[in-house]
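User: Before I run my own analysis I want an independent prediction to cross-check against. Here's the chain; please return only the structure tokens and, at the end, one sentence I can use as a sanity check.
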Amino acid sequence: MIENLPIGTRDEWIELSDRCRLFARIVAPENAEREPVPAVLEYLPYRLTDGTAYSDATHHPYFAARGYASIRVDIRGTGNSDGILRDEYLPQEQSDACEVIAWIAAQPWCTGAVGMFGKSWGGFNGLQVAARRPPALKAVVSAYSTDDRYADDVHHMGGCVLGHEALSWGSYMLGINALPPDPEIVGDRWREMWLDRLERTPFFVEEWLRHQRRDEFWRQGSICEDFGAVQAAILLVGGWADGYTNAVDRALAGLTRAGVPCRGLVGPWSHGWPEIADPGPRIGFLQECVRWWDRWLRGAANGAMDEPPLRAWMQDYAAPAAHHAFRPGRWVGEAEWPSPRTPLRRWFPRDDGGLCSEAGEPGNASIAGHAAAGADAGAWCPYGLVTDFPPDQRAEDGVALSFTSRALDRPLELLGVPVLTLRLTVDQPLALVAARLCDVGPDGASLLVARGLLNLSHRAGHTEPAPMPVGEPTVVRFALDFAGHSFAPGHRIRLSVSPTYWPFAWPSPQAVTLGVSVGGPSVIELPVRSPDAAEPPMSAFLAPESTPPPPGHVDFRPWRRHARDVATGRTTLDVGAAERTRLDRDGLTFGEELSRRYEIDDGRPLSARVQCRGDHFLQRGSWRISIRVRTAMTGTAESFLITSELDAFEDGVRVFARRSDVSVPRDLV
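Assistant: Structure tokens:
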């Protein structure tokens, strides 16, 4: 491996075919003009000169010192780039990236071989651009992303509208898209660019909600539509604590079937880079990236493809808590994926509340939806904050139909996707079911292992929903999240189901009572891994490395408060964080304060309400910009109601204001 080359940094404007200019920062070996090197691209909307400056500084110089030109580009309409960002993951974004890759490959300092890397948005568009097949793109590292924009992203889950993330994420994007480009980068035209952006950048949520089923809006940008369109080598990275890990299971299988060179890596991590994320163990992830690129951009015979197709951290039990710094376990590898060593084994709920490997006497159980169900779900997309993870699930288990096994007499390992079949009845035509799989310790504490949601009108698929037949037993089958977990002897397996899961899932318009047939018709199938007694131990990962962040200071304070008013029956969840960053090198201070409130009343699903507040600012000397965003979402039996307010201030004077009230019909949700 090449290490510690002298490097340099410079900024460039990349002009596209329609004359839109994208802002790029290039970190490369100083001798690249004389001895060209491969290049790697990170392509994001998160403002490279402020929003991602800290993380950029820990990655791009590291790759450059190891013989790569590492390029970070602001997507059209964001940061310092020209244009308007009209939504996530549009064809325009992908086409622009193909032009950027062609520009990079043609530079005298580049060998013509290009890779992409990124997590979340950057992981998404790495896969999407790979499906466009730009000739120079040879390899992608895609972390915490998805192959299916409808199935696994902040908008929907199992056909349910996600109350937890859809509005809050859209509100955050509205706020950062409203910030101006940097006058020190773009010059005097910064104010004209800013005002144009304020006028024309939409509130993405309004369009997202107009597509409540899996239509062409979501199929665009979902590589699962045609895994064979991908030719670049793909390294898929996920974390058990993250919201996007299902894609590693699906895409690894789909790409492998299509003959695409690929590998999957799943650690215990939340939505952070694996060299810094909680829970640990953290790994030398940047070394893994370099190893992948050395293989596919340089042709090095370094064994990168000799690793098992899937490497995963098999998690052991840990006492449930809102934060884990470390999850005990061990690394395991599977020589094939899907693996023949993880067959589905059946466990049956019984009318005595048990969960057994044999069906019992036929029976029925029922439960009415409860407003508190879901309050201890944790964040849909945890960042490893002290408030993020699902705490003890016993309170959740108590407001659901729960079925618990006897204490296990031997270890039971899961690696794969649990599948739940329920024979159920509901008393309303629009209803949902939430399912959770938990590990119950000897002390009774309940640790969440996997969960799943299904909007019952989507029981036959997400393209043509249909109301449920009221009171008529109906069989439904759906998957829980991809999981890797070892149940220890003395622990018990618990399955819990409920017709509410707020604020993850937007509640059905009428209160629902859910009935479940037990003793045979209903069953959960668990992917039980049978370790080979002779399987060799996995090779250890290298220790984490990175380059240091720029001089400055970061102050970050998260909070999470959950309250239930027993007099009114109202459950309230408040979540938020405040961050302030100073970059000494640029004399720039920036930050934000974000908060979300989720409310619902017992027995009144139409009382569900989400409110988001965002205050963002940029300051350098006497120049100060501030953005104020206020959004809310409620629902009637017929429609979702979305309100938004955006105010922009320059030096304390309001220069722009926009108000919006939008009603979107509910589409069998």
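Sanity check: The first strand starts at residue 7 and ends at 15.
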